[in-house]
Amino acid sequence: MIKTHSPLRRKRAQALAEMAVMVPFLVIGMMGMLDLGRAFYYQISITNAVREGARYAVQPYYLGLNPSCATIPPAPNPGSNCVSPGDDAITTHVQNELAGSNIAIPASDIHVTPDQGTRVTYFNGATPTSQYPITVSASFKFNFITPIIGSLIGNPLTINTSAVFRAEY
Fold first, then answer.
1. Which residues lie below 8 Å from residue 30, measured CB to CB, with a gap of 6+?
2. Comparing C-alpha atoms, which of 124, 48, 111 is closest to residue 79?
3. At 140, which helix (H) or strand (E)?
4. pLDDT, position 77
5. What is the rounded distance in angstroms from the CA atom of residue 132 to the CA atom of residue 72?
6. Where is pLDDT greater, at 98 or 153?
7. Which residue intervals of the chain are DSSP H helices?
8. How many angstroms separate the CA atoms of 142 and 154, rounded?
């Protein structure tokens, strides 16, 4: 009697069928982990950039014996002799920190509180204290590559981060 199908051949076919069923789940799982890793990378990069922007906003500069800030408005920015940088300078600093990471956040998604007019008013002596918090915050819409992860978590995922430093000038 001649056997046409050996038990070894049946085992190979069963292993092939099991592999064909499991490979899509393994690939989707790996891509999902890569996507989550990308999301964490973006969160960390944006947080570090915002922290650097807040540090830049409160860092006092030596501008001679008599620093002065232009009143806002009518001036569009505090001027180069002001210890408090303008909102545009802080926003540009955050964007420059992100330049090496290929993350582009538009200036409209980066916010500085209090605004430059209030900071200039504080510096020019309208308030009794020179110590106040400056908050720099940013938001970014992160898009997942893996469709299943995106539908589970929400696509796009909005990454919000902020940093608060105290001005002491």
1. none
2. 124
3. strand 131-142
4. 78
5. 18
6. 98
7. 7-58, 87-97, 116-123, 147-153
8. 10
74-122 residue pLDDT tens:
777 787 778 788 899 999 999 999 998 889 999 999 999 988 888 888 8
Say whether 67 sits in a helix, a strand or coil: coil
pLDDT tens digit string along 11-62?
Answer: 777 888 888 888 888 888 888 889 889 999 999 999 999 999 999 998 876 6
Strands ordered across the beta sheet of 110-113 = 110-113, 131-142, 157-168
Angle made by CA atoms 80, 106, 61, in degrees to the nearest 5:
25
- With beta carbons less than 8 A apart as the criterion, state whether 39 and 142 touch: yes
Q: Which residue shows structure tokens 């180069």?
A: 80
The alpha helices in 59-156, defined as continuous H runs, are: 87-97, 116-123, 147-153
Tell me which DSSP letter residue 85 carries. Answer: P
Q: How far apart are CA 120 and CA 128, in angstroms?
A: 13
